[in-house]
Amino acid sequence: MSAWKNPGNRTSTVLGRKLGAELLRLRNAAGIKQIDAGKVLSAGNTKIAKMESGWVPMRDPDIRALCELYGLTDQSEIKELLTLAKLDRERRKAKGWWRLVSESNPLSQYISMEDVATRIRTWELSFIPGLFQTAEYTRALVVGHGDWEDPEEVEPIVEVRQKRQQRIHDDSPLELYAVVWEAALRQLVGGPEVMRRQLAHLMEVAELPHIRLQVLPFRAGSHPCAVGPFHILSFAESGAIDVIYTDSHTDPVVVENDVESARYRTYFERTARLSMSQHDSLRLIDDIRQEI
After folding, report:
1. 110 with 239, same domain?
2. What mean pLDDT is reported for the chain?
3. How high is the pLDDT of residue 183?
4. % of the chain with per-residue pLDDT over 70
5. Per-residue pLDDT for 8 more than 50?
6. Could you tell me the pLDDT band of residue 102, with boundaries at 50, 70 and 90?
7. Domain range enclosing 51
8. Are both 42 and 133 inside the same structural domain?
9. Residue 265 and residue 28: Cα distance in Å, rounded?
10. Residues linked to residue 231 through DSSP beta bridges, in sequence order
């Protein structure tokens, strides 16, 4: 097993990890060690480890050489691997603004995926979803978190969140389906004035044709998503499975396999069915806004 652990400053992409997993499966099936695979590429086992973990873009000649070593002769399978590699390289070439976000930021991986996703389903218990937040609401959240107090630390976080919101205003906008617990609407983040403006903004954004917003009211009782918030990211590439991202106080969790993705989709759909319609949700939001 390779001792390589640090990915360096590369970005592990959804497609890169999928391609790497396929190469790892082929190598294991052939009973070949990383160090021997590396020799075929005139490289060490470190390069093979990075490739199998999706941390580096892959060249077609390297993929073909490994396929030959692993005994893969099915041209259709090889073509699929080459197509994945091409899509992954194109994604990495994109000068996405999110590359300016420090990789030490736990959100950096999520932001990179969000930037290329075509659809996101999000469940929130305590906060307004990030893509719907006003700058002053985000600022109040960050300050309230306690880890950042210096404006030089707070403002870059606010700016990044505002920049992310361009995805819902692009020519090919991100499709966003959000289900939010009623508690998130009543929590006075930043005080009454900030919250009133936030709820007004939420109502305005929800009118966009590619946005769907539902509120899970208190009266709904028990539901499948009570454990915590999560996001389901979907991608345009053929064969790209949904990625699940869950927040935590420490390291976030990224789930990327068909079985688990399906389970989270079921949780989301069941909770959405218990929620109010968008029309009734907006009425509730406006009532809460006026009550504050």
Report:
1. yes
2. 87
3. 97
4. 85
5. no
6. low
7. 14-93
8. no
9. 31
10. 122, 245
Q: What is the pTM of this model?
A: 0.73
CATH label of the domain that carries residue 46 = 1.10.260.40
Contacts of 98 by beta carbon, 8 Å cutoff, 6+ apart: 108, 111, 112, 114, 115, 164
Tell me, yes or no, whether 210 and 285 share the same domain: yes
For residues 114 and 35, state if they share a domain: no
Q: Which residue has the higher pLDDT, 123 or 112?
A: 123
Work out the pLDDT band at 28, boundaries 50, 70, 90.
Answer: very high
Beta pairing class for 211-216 and 175-181: parallel
pLDDT at residue 146, as a whole number: 62
- Residue 260 contacts residue 245 (beta carbons within 8 Å): no
Together in a domain, 83 and 123: no
Closest CA to 272 of 118, 122, 129: 122
d(CA 122, CA 246): 10
Report the C-alpha gap between 122 and 124 in whole angstroms. Answer: 7
Closest of 245, 211, 209, 246 to residue 227, by C-alpha: 246
The amino acid at 226: A
If one counts the domains in the chain, the total is 2
CA 256 to chain centre: 11
Supply 14's token pair.
């959804």
Over the stretch 114-173, which tens digit does the pLDDT of each residue have? 887 899 999 999 999 999 999 999 999 988 776 666 667 788 889 989 999 999 998 889
Residues written for the chain: 292
Check: CB of residue 234 under 8 Å from CB of residue 118: yes
